[in-house]
Every structure is written in structure tokens, then in C-alpha cells.
């Protein structure tokens, strides 16, 4: 990929040193600048594309008109339609920061954008076929509005539609009251209860003879509070059933104005609350099915959700605000990719990498963070100021929601350019789909790469995905962890209000100027791999491995306050009581192979690999296992001696958490079970098998399976 970088000062209104920016941009074929890039300099850009055979442009241009001109240029040169990538150095830098800071930040932004493009995921789609059947609950007007484009059923929900003003001639009107809505888009099952069965022929006899106001004409239905009596005998088809008859109506989409949904923003194809033109348009857009970007990659082989009927990790199900993840069984997790809204909550909570965002991927985010924190030039120097004594003094990585938070920051820039006194510290933004994307791996990596602090910048007051205070718990946990690591508190959440830039600027200034000391970890020298060991099956940049890699980098330069680092959820410490009989349950269930039983009958644990899913604790038949959350530095292999607490010469990853004894077969000498297990089984069922081998000097429980079978055959 041949890349050219181009930056503009927007007619001199963007206060950046263009020459210094050019000196700071690296890893491109050519970098050029102009005060009016999208006007007088555009022919020169055209020529540079040919001269350097460019197939990718990184452009410091924020105005929509300027972007359109570059898109037109890209098209005229026969390049890929998305060959122009844009950097917002005007609203986010030149209009709201001092000149040196804005210059420094602009070059870093261009470098990060250029780096991110190398890790951009190819587009993939997910499809969900659906029919055109729409069930509308109790809203005749909406049903009528959709009748021309969809197959519509109006569920009366106890209402009377004989005299409805809406045209229901093309609408099927169903009797009954809504009980529940289950299923998903294209496969909804609506439970309906009525007091009239499907044998009803709408003869109106019950309407005439039944209690006044208790029976509707269209459709014929009876109120649940209607009294019993002789009038119920009037029906010629015996269709009246006052005990209630429940049935299921299938639908592809459901409009339920009086309904509620625990899914934030609602489920795809299920609409609650007031119905307007937007609702009708949304329904029509989904008729026949949906094709949308595939937001997630799944590696379910490494999932820690459960096994063999035991429930393990529930992180993704608990985290998803859109009901796009569910447990069809206690030991199974299923993702509805059509319902996914790309917030990243499941990915940041998953410890194993079983689910990950396609774009931006964790690797792309990591590379952008590393580029933002590096001030090294192509020739190995430091830019843009001699000796590095200018520019950004406190590098803070800001993971920024690209929805309302990004819009608020853009508004600050425009208001500053219009003459308002608006300025805030030059944080280094990494845009994410939602702050739900951000987990402990992202934050710890930024600190390991030398960031002085991490700002999580999200929606003001009420996140579109997770609601109010979406990252409060994460911030609290990670500040506990960074304090334990000897860094002090270095993480904060900010919610910029477009109408109150002063509050945001003051809070951010207090964080960067009063809270943060220089980070002892060198800035811009770390390049992550996202793995702990190459032989692990987990995808790169899974939360557990990425976090551990970052912690190991941090402790090279700090003096941790304690060995047990609190606040990191993706790590567990195992304790085993004397009740352990060394059954293989825990080692069989463990999804990361962090537990093993040795030939000598010992139970061993690898803290480095444990993701604290809880499966071993849940499945232990003797309830002998207790798991505590947290990372214990003293139990990592680099801080232990080979064989310490384990068999001599063993891998230092492993420590013995319970010493046992293997029972050897009295006939062949093969170790076949733990002595404790054999003793326990004999105490439970020994009476039932006594005397089955009367000629043997030993108990049948002292033989391995093969020899026991031979023994019983000999004594048949």
C-alpha cells in the first residue's frame, strides 16, 4: 500500500505548524501540506498520486465539501472508492488547543490513522431471511398504514374494531389479549389468550345475550372479568371458554405500543412505545429480511460458558444491552448476529477471545494507540520540537465513542472557531463504536505503551447502548488495579455535553493536570503481541492475554504495592480444601487447561492461564474448590522457580494446590485413580459389591478397570 499524507490549515484558521507536522508524519511515501488543500493545492495532489503511485490517501480535512472533493479525485484516478481516509485535526486539535499541542497532536493523528488502515477488516455481511407478516397489537391506524406493503394481523387486545375509522379491509383482525412475545426477528412467537375458541363463527348470539360491555363484536371476544352464567350456553358451536384459551401466533415483526423491552433500544423487529412514521418505515425496511454488516467474529471453541451441564462464564450474556446474546442451554451461548448493534460490550467482557469485534479490532486499536504515543521520526529522531521540549506534555489516550461523544467534541471545535473561549487538554483520541468496546485489556495496554492516563469519553448522561454511567464500574476496578501496580489512579470517564463545554474542559484539565503524574513506563516503546504464549488456542488480543502482557510490561518499571492485584476480573486464584478426592471433573471442565492432575496424584493449577470462569468451582462434586478474582504476581511463572510447589523440574507455570496419592492396580501396577476417590467410592457402594470376587485377597476397588473385569470374569 503506497500512502500519501496531506494536511491543511483551512485557510490559516487551523493553528498548526504545517512544516512541523510534515516532519512528524512517518511511514508514508509522501507528505504535503497547504493552507487550502481542497482548492489551489488539489491539482498538486493529483500529480503526487501519479508520481508516487499512491493507492491510499490520509487527509487532514474535516469539512464535508473538502471530503467530497477528495472523494471525487479518488474516483477520477480510478482508486478504491474509500481510498481517502480523513483525520479530524481541525475541530479536535487546531481549533481547541495551543499551537504546539495542536501541531503535535495532528501529526500523531495522521500516523495513527495511517497505522489503523493496515489493520482494517474486510467487509462481511450477515443475512437473516424473514417473511412479511407483521403483528400489530391494538393499534388499528398502524395496522392500516402497513397493510399496503405487508401482511398485517391486528391483535385486538380486548378492543372493539367494528366501528374503527381506520381502513382494516386488508388487515386480519385476531381476538385475544397479548400474554408474551418470544423469539426473534423473523421467528417471533406471540402468546395470545382469549375466552372464545377458534370454533367461533361470529354469529353474535353471545353479543346479544351476554353481559353488557363485556363482549366485543369485531373480533368476537369476551372480557376476562365476564361472569359465568346461562348465557354461555347460547353459542351454537360451544366456542365460549371462560377459563381462557391460549394459542401462539407466528410473526416476522411485532408492533406492541404498550410493551416493554429489556433490550436497550429495543430488539430488531420488535417495536414498543409510541408508533410514528419512523416506526412504519423501519418495519417496511425489514420486510423480507435484512442484510447488514457482520460486526462480530466468533471462536466458540475457546468459549468458557460451560460444559457437561455446568454453567461457567456469563460475561457476554450479562453485558449485552440488546439481547443479542442468550443461553439456549445452561452450558451454551448463542449470538444473534442480526440483532447485534456493534457496541462491543460482549467483546470487552469476554476473557478468552471467543467473541471479538471485527472493526475496529483490538489489534487495530492497539496499533493506533502505539502510533499515537510514538514521536519517533523516520530517521529515528524525536519530533516536532528540538529536544522534545514542546508539544503534548501529558499524553492521555482518550477512547472516544464515535456517536454522541464525538459529535459533542466536534461542536466544541466549531464553537471555538466561531469565537467562544473553548479549550481543553490535547488528549489523543482513539474512536470506538461505543465506550462499551473498552475493557481492561484496552486500558492496561495504553498504560503499558506509556500513556500517562486513559480517558474514556462517552455519551453524555445516558449511553445509547448501556444507559447512564456506563463505565463507572470499569473505572473503579481499573483504578484499584493501577494503584496496586504502583501507578496510582490513571483512569477516568467523561461525558461531554454539547451545551456545556466548560464543564468537560474543567474536568479533563483536573484529570490531566492534577491527578496524573508522569508514567514511569516509557512512552511509545511498546509493541504488543496480544498473546501470552504462542501455543495457546485463543485468538490474539483476547482480554486475558492482552491484559497480562500489558501488566508484565508495566511492572518492569514500577514497584507494585502488593502481589495480589485487585480489580482485574479476567484472572482467578484457585484454593482446594482437603475434601478433594482428585476426581477429574475440574481438569475436564476447565476451558483453558489451567488445571491438571499429575501421575503422582497431585492437583496442579496454572494461574497464568485461568480466566476465572468458575466452571471448576461449579462442577466440583466435593465442593472442594474456591476461586478468588484477581491477578497474583507471585504466582506467575516468571516469579516462581521450576518445581516450586510442584514436581521437581516441572514447568514453573504449574503449582500444586492439592497433594494426593495415586492408587496402583494390585495386579498390573498401573496407577488408575486417586486413593481418596477409591476410598470414597468404596464407602458409598462397597456393601453392594461385597463377595463378587471371594477368591481375591484384595478389594475389587484395588484393581484397575481392565484387571477388575478380568477378576470378575475369573470369578463368574
From TrEMBL:
UniProt keyword Iron, yes or no: yes
Domain (4Fe-4S ferredoxin-type): residue spans on this chain: 331-360, 601-630
Keywords: 4Fe-4S, Iron, Iron-sulfur, Metal-binding, Oxidoreductase
Matches recorded under Pfam families: Fer4_4, Fer4_7, FlpD
UniProt GO MF annotations: 4 iron, 4 sulfur cluster binding; metal ion binding; oxidoreductase activity
PANTHER family: ADENYLYLSULFATE REDUCTASE, BETA SUBUNIT (PTHR43687), BLR5484 PROTEIN (PTHR43687:SF4)
Biased composition (Basic and acidic residues): 523-538
Protein name listed in UniProt: 4Fe-4S dicluster domain-containing protein
Listed Gene3D superfamilies: 3.30.70.20
Gene source species: Halobaculum gomorrense
Region (Disordered): 517-538
InterPro entries the record matches: 4Fe4S_Fe-S-bd, 4Fe4S_Fe_S_CS, Fe-S_Ferredoxin, MvhD/FlpD
SUPFAM superfamilies with a match to the protein in the record: 4Fe-4S ferredoxins
